[in-house]
Specification:
Blueprint: H1 6-27, H2 33-65, H3 70-73, H4 81-85, E1 98-100, E2 118-120, E3 125-128, E4 141-142, E5 149-150, E6 155-158, E7 166-168, E8 173-180, E9 186-193, H5 212-222, E10 229-231, E11 246-249, H6 260-264, H7 268-279, E12 286-291, H8 300-303, E13 309-314, H9 322-329, E14 338-341, H10 343-355, E15 361-367, E16 375-380, H11 385-389, E17 398-402, E18 409-411, E19 423-428, H12 480-484, H13 491-499, H14 503-508, H15 516-525, H16 532-546
Parallel strand pairs: 1-13, 2-16, 11-12, 11-14, 12-13, 15-19
Antiparallel strand pairs: 3-9, 4-6, 5-8, 6-7, 8-9, 10-14, 15-16, 17-18, 17-19
Length: 547
């Protein structure tokens, strides 16, 4: 089990107290029958409590053996107060499957967006980055060259390992740069956008009559196939293999993440058409993860979606992660493959079939305390970071992140938005030395530890920076990871199995169910300052290469 529980600790304390009282009574002159029978009653109660606790632990072990998580469903002989009292279900759940997650942690940061208005911005430079696609050949086969003019949707390059998977231009314009990285790998294909956009035309298949094979071929030829990702490994899927199921999370619980209501507003028809296309690509189900955290119902685009299985989730981050939702709906077993998409990828897919053009539009959240005005902007995949943030930085010494603060990637102002991201976060650069660290009282900071009295101020927002407030330490067992990850997985044991290349243990401990974003919160909470996302990616790549 995961250490001694609070119930066990209380019983042991009671037992030691009883022993002390018994000793005092035995030493007292003459004794006392009342004291004797009182101590006997205490001893009986202690023994009974120990029996119940052991039985409770055995029940939890048996539950895990059959695939249930006793911490999530409240399976216990001694249920917690939360499970006894319970929280009222929102009325909008309407009897659909509901999961109330008990583990996780919300990080509340300054720099959130106050207005739901989406501002269109004029961006001149865009880029497609081959390194955004895990497993692609470092030097993909280029179809275009510098100086060539392309339309939105024209193919820029394809994967040498899988030549049928092609990658398209997000905008029309001129190819002005093909930047190379280490060992001549292709790092960026940069486009200067036309003022008046031109789109490649397609002969759309009839969605009512087309079979899976025809739809797959169309998505490959159009360059839209990379919108889909496969679990395990988070790679662009093999078109020859049909997924068991397809999962879409319609909300994001990461710090300062965009509101899906804003993202889907005005694009409801495109979202539904995207779901219709996806339903044709699997013999299984298309699953929607819906947000049950607030009093306000999600957008009708999600709650009234047709042809899908709906599942409601309530809980702290990472409740919005698609990996967590897959785990609680239908976990991935060895040999199985599922596909995942974000809301905006589904909209792009639907737009392709509604309007006949490849339009990888992004409602992008520009957030963080180092921005003058956090806001939503409307742009396209691969937009220039410099142009997105121009005139909006409060200071120069900042960290720019494509994505959220937990799992995003550090960028410079000369870089471009990553393919799957819908958020740019700007926070202070934390390259300062902190004498004595947490030993000296100071301002409150984001933490899961009760060393700081943050738990007394649950709605307090923090000004984050990149300082880790400590160095890498011995990789010790703390139980922190299990409190952060609402999945029936032991992350610390898995990480150690990865470090020693124990393939059987990696598989047995659930590596196929995880992606970097799922362990990002564990990394944030880690006392040992271990790079858990990097370790997990190393393990996933190893398992993928082993086949």
């Amino acid at each position: 089990m995961k250490g001694i529980s609070g119930k066990t600790t209380s019983v042991l304390a009671l037992l030691f107290s009883a022993q002390s009282l018994w000793a005092q009574g035995a030493e007292a002159e003459g004794g006392n029958n009342l004291l004797f029978y009182g101590l006997l009653a205490v001893a009986v109660l202690v023994i009974f409590a120990l029996i119940v606790i052991v039985s409770d632990n055995l029940l939890a072990i048996e539950a895990r053996n059959v695939g249930a998580d006793p911490n999530e469903v409240g399976l216990s002989l001694l249920p917690s107060m939360d499970h006894i009292v319970g929280r009222r279900l929102p009325e909008y759940v309407n009897g659909y499957p509901f999961t109330d997650l008990k583990r996780g942690h919300d990080i509340l940061l300054e720099g959130e967006i106050e207005s739901e208005e989406v501002v269109p911005v004029q961006i001149n430079r865009f880029a497609v980055l081959p390194p955004d696609f895990i497993g692609i050949s470092p030097i993909p086969k280029m179809v275009v060259e510098e100086g060539q003019s392309v339309k939105a949707g024209d193919i820029l390059f394809f994967d040498k390992k899988r030549p049928n998977i092609k990658y398209a231009a997000p905008v029309s314009g001129e190819v002005i740069d093909i930047r190379r990285g280490a060992k001549r790998s292709i790092a960026e294909v940069v486009l200067l956008a036309d003022k008046e956009q031109r789109h490649r035309t397609y002969e759309l298949p009839d969605l009512n009559r087309a079979g899976r094979e025809e739809l797959v071929q169309f998505l490959l030829d159009s360059g839209a196939w990379p919108l889909i990702r496969q679990r395990p490994f988070d790679v662009v899927p093999d078109p020859e293999e049909a997924p068991r199921d397809i999962f879409i999370s319609t909300f994001d619980t990461a710090p300062l993440a965009p509101d899906a209501r804003v993202v889907v507003s005005g694009r409801e028809k495109a979202f539904q058409r995207g779901l219709d296309v996806l339903a044709k690509l699997t013999d299984g189900d298309v699953h929607l993860g819906l947000d049950a955290r607030g009093d306000r119902a999600p957008s009708e685009a999600f709650t009234a979606a047709e042809g899908v299985q709906k599942h409601w989730f309530r809980g702290k981050h990472p409740a919005g992660n698609v990996g967590v939702q897959i785990h609680h709906v239908n976990p991935i077993s060895p040999g199985e493959k599922v596909w995942t998409l974000g809301v905006q990828e589904v909209i792009t897919l639907g737009t392709l079939f509604l309007e006949g053009k490849y339009l990888p539009e992004r409602v992008l959240a520009l957030v963080g305390a180092e921005l003058k005005t956090p806001r939503y902007v409307r742009t396209l995949q691969g937009a220039s970071i410099k142009e997105l943030l121009e005139g909006n930085l409060a200071h120069d010494h900042v960290r720019i992140i494509s994505g959220d603060v937990l799992s995003g990637r550090k960028l410079s102002s000369e870089d471009y938005l990553r393919f799957y991201d819908d958020q740019v976060t700007v926070i202070k650069e934390g390259d300062y030395f902190e004498m004595f660290g947490w030993l000296v009282p100071g301002k409150l900071r984001p933490t899961t530890s009760r060393t700081f009295p943050n738990f007394l101020f649950p709605d307090l927002k923090f000004e984050a920076d990149t300082n880790t407030h400590g160095e890498k330490r011995a990789f010790v067992v703390t139980g922190q990871y299990e409190r952060m990850l609402p999945m029936d997985i032991y992350p610390q044991h898995l990480m150690k199995a990865i470090l020693i290349n124990d393939f059987e243990r990696m598989e047995g401990l659930g590596i196929y169910e995880l992606s970097e974003e799922d362990v990002a919160l564990c990394e944030f909470a880690c006392t040992s300052k271990q790079p858990l996302q990097q370790i997990l990616r190393m393990g996933l790549d190893t398992m993928r290469e082993q086949g």
